[in-house]
Design goal:
The protein is of the alpha+beta class. Helices cover 65% and strands 9% of the residues. It has a 6-stranded mixed β-sheet with strand order 2-3-1-4-5-6, with helices on both faces. Strand 4, helix 12 and strand 5 form a beta-alpha-beta unit. The longest helix has 43 residues. The chain starts with a helix and ends with a helix.
């Protein structure tokens, strides 16, 4: 019975800025559509009422009023379009409140100039429908609007000398509009709660809990959407396999808790290097990771992998005394291709795996690509325009 109160309480669960951002985007879309439909509607009614001789407003004022309202709708349509196009999110809320203020004033002017009290009530009811169903307004804003309308309706009742029954009808319409607005807001919160819960559940199922990287399922899901696009665009892609060297020795020397910390540190380096939205990092084994890079040529891919290797070494995570290096290092395997219908992700991954095994079998702490070894030099500099990178092309 009072589900809408639960919906209002749910507002406290979310970051207010995020809720506001969602509401602003939703209002922009609704008001954008309403503006276009309102403009067409006003032009239609102006022509129709003129042809049939129906007057809701005095004389020629009616056509002028409808055309003016159509112009207002077009103006707001353009303002919303520009605001959304320029992504001026700071202006969203101001634009919504300006829109509401203008429409409210216009409809009250129509009510005051209406040919009869019944027509005035129709205009007021249309205003209530607009305020309660088109923009999403918080209960506080709805209460403020209703208070302002109550004052305006009191002035209207005095000017028009309305009887108690008619005045009460206007008040009841306002209360109904307020309640509809509150229910609309609570319904929005319930939908937002459902969506956030669903997104969270999907994220939990597709994310490795310790590292925050994708797990195998999450990687597969991302590839389902991006791989067909890569085929259509014949995109150059790279698959990188990363394995922490002698991780068992690390665990044996420092314990599993320290091992988890080591994995998280390496994960942080991977995440810092994977910056583009079309690139993905995933944990595919205990100490094994996969990185998918798109729109990258072989030389760039080699440079990217060597930079990642250097970033991990720069962490200077102490390794076991039994290890060949005093610090944690990684072995890497790389595979690249121009994607077409004959190339699958699994084939690329298999090639990257083979290169990773070559790296581990030939001394570790190095990258293998096309059966060739690539390493940063002893001063830990990544090679730039060298023959090594030219060979990668």
């Amino acid at each position: 019975m009072f589900d809408f109160l639960d919906g209002l309480r749910e507002d406290r669960q979310y970051d207010r800025h995020k809720v506001k951002a969602v509401i602003d985007r939703l209002n922009m879309g609704r008001l954008y559509t309403f503006s276009l439909a309102g403009c067409v509607g006003m032009l239609f009614f102006a022509l129709l009422f003129s042809l049939v001789g129906l007057h809701l407003l005095p004389g020629k004022y009616q056509t002028l009023a409808f055309l003016s309202l159509a112009a207002i709708f077009i103006l707001f349509f353009l303002m919303i379009y520009i605001t959304v196009k320029t992504k001026n999110t700071a202006f969203f809320e101001k634009l919504v409140y300006s829109y509401i203020a203008v429409i409210t004033v216009v409809m009250f002017v129509f009510s005051f100039r209406a040919e009869s009290v019944l027509v005035a009530m129709v205009f007021y009811m249309l205003l209530m429908v607009f305020l309660s169903l088109v923009p999403v307004l918080s209960p506080v804003v709805s209460l403020i609007l209703w208070g302002a309308q109550f004052i305006a309706m009191a002035v209207f009742a005095l000017v028009k000398q309305l009887d108690i029954t008619t005045s009460t009808s206007f008040i009841l319409i306002g209360i109904m509009g307020l309640m509809l607005s509150v229910f609309s807001y609570s319904g929005f919160l319930r939908k937002l709660n459902y969506k956030l819960s669903l997104d969270h559940a999907i994220s939990e199922a597709e994310t490795d809990p310790m590292t925050g990287l994708l797990n195998r399922r999450g990687l597969d899901h991302r590839l389902e959407s991006i791989w067909p696009h890569c085929i259509r665009q014949q995109t150059r892609v790279a698959v990188v396999m990363v394995d922490i060297d002698n991780f068992k020795k690390y665990n044996d020397s420092f314990g599993h808790a320290a091992g988890d910390g080591c994995i998280k540190a390496v994960t942080g380096a991977i995440r810092n290097c994977v910056r583009r939205r079309t690139d993905y990092g995933a944990r595919v084994g205990g100490e094994e990771f996969l990185v998918f890079l798109s729109d990258i040529d072989p030389a760039q891919a080699v440079r990217w992998v060597l930079n990642l290797q250097k970033s991990i070494l720069a962490l200077k995570i102490p390794h076991s005394k039994m290890n060949f290096s005093p610090y944690v290092t990684v072995s890497l395997g790389l595979a690249t291709a121009v994607v077409n219908e004959n190339i699958t992700f699994d084939a690329l991954k298999e090639e990257a795996d083979m290169q990773l095994y070559a790296s581990k079998n030939n001394g570790r702490d190095r990258l293998y690509y096309r059966n060739k070894c690539y390493r940063s030099d002893k001063n830990n500099r990544t090679p730039a325009d060298t023959d090594v990178l030219e060979e990668a092309n």
